[in-house]
Design brief:
By secondary structure, this protein is of the alpha+beta class. It has 5 helices and 16 strands. A 14-stranded mixed beta sheet has the order 7-8-9-10-11-14-15-1-2-3-4-5-6-16, with helices on one face. A two-stranded antiparallel sheet has the order 12-13.
Length: about 270
Amino acid sequence: MNRLLLFISLALLLTSCRSSKITAPTLSKAPKADLLIDSVMASHFDFDWLSAKISGKFISEEQSFSFKGNIKVRKDSLIWMTLSPGLGVELGRILMDQDSIRFMNRLEKSYFVGSYSDLSENLHSELSFERIQSLLLGNPLSNFEQKKYYSDVREGAFSLNSVSAKQLKKLERNTKKATIELFFSSVNPQTYRLNAQIIRNISLQQEMRVAYEDFEPHKNQMLAESIDLSILSGEKLVKMSLSYSKVNTEKELKFPFKVPKSYENIH
């Protein structure tokens, strides 16, 4: 069950496609952090409905496999997915709302209803509906409520982080005090969309890293079309990549999720 929860967690965390990269201009100075935050927030991918076909690959120490499926999202409300091993047979169906996650296993004829705390425990990273939705869209995982952030220029992009390089070194030397969640990001200087973002807890030796390589315009907004996720907890590393096709943000959607009475409820 833990392995199944882990896979569902990762499946819900991603979505993407393939396209052309945007080349950043030569940079000499970054905007002040508060101005950069304003620009990043203004570049959020906004929508009411989103649907797409997905394909991807899951890699861990225990197993590696490819899959295909479909995803539907209603903004701030529902995330729905179907998954198959790539042969056209549906393996399972997932439905998330603000409070819970439901998974229906077609092969084993079973289902369960879980909480975000269950997923957080299995991934060793704090999860919520809002955070998962942000990952799907390439929006920031941080809500920027911390008093101070730091901006800089690094590798042809703007960096926006919750700690300075000097503060990070101190935290790495004294890991017992490094209990807070740290946020790091790389920002495209032309679109102010995220090239990458990292959530890290030094004390717990946990890190979630998400890279966004390609973007495509949808309703005059840029949506990441290639996303790679890696989650490190201690020495255990799990990776997932996903790609979108046939993205649609215009059509109102339905989210079918009816569990047959014969299915076993797994607690």
